[in-house]
Please model this.
Amino acid sequence: MRFTRRQFTAYMAASMTLAAIPNSLLASSQPFAGGRLYSFSDGVMNLPVETLFADAPVAARDQILAKTGVTDGRLRRPVNVNLLDLGERKILFDVGSGVNFLPTLGELPAALDAADVDISTITDVVFTHAHPDHIWGILDDFDDLLMPDAAYYISQAEWDFWDSDDAMSVMPAGRENFAAGAKSRFDKLRDQISLFKVGDEILPNIEVIDSAGHTPGHASLLLHDPAGSVLIAGDALTHSVISFEHPDWLNESDMDRDQGAVARKRLLDRLAADKVGLAATHLPAPGFGRVERNQSVWRYVAADS
Model:
């Protein structure tokens, strides 16, 4: 079931009860840094397996996918969006895709409404990268900024790439709209975007971690807290088995596949060694978990495991 933001508001005005709210709109959260870290669903992508792991050994790939419930050649990949609610400051990490990318996405505004989060109270929006399911959702139905008063942040390298004339020319066939869509969103953000670099503390206790490879300036965000830090990983880790047990398998969705593999291994080492929590866009909803290492193999452990 899918709602536009206006449809959902009308529904709520008609005294919709909590029990009637679709499960896809209900949020998961965990305490963090004196506030709460939420995971909201923007929907689910339904993708052919071959578009994601074409370079992987086919027999081994299909065996893993079958164990995780994929038996029809289609990978149903959730899109989790995180919100760090610290009271007066509410920080959104990525914004989903809006309604102009895939028909199964664009749920984030309704999910926020369902959780009684007033979208106008979001103070900061931090982008991991500029792919459609992470940035297209900044626009409302009238192509205006959905959160016009928020402060926005993205990596310098990511901005420089998508804002250049070269982006369109290097897009794989069929993905040219990725470049056009990013550029059109950048034009809306141009006067209120802040650009960061690896190692920057862009907001209090939020450190930029290099995870380029998926895109030229893909960044993960390390949320520091003495009680236990959490990494907002974006698309650096996208499958609950393959990304962890086979980080060397080249991923079709990485723009630089070799660099993407290096970034995965580097992040996995740090997550396991430092016992950092994980929040990832495309891991099984809500995407919260941790990484363990057994000799040469990493393993993803969901937060409720």
Q: What stands out?
A: The two ends are 28 Å apart (CA to CA).
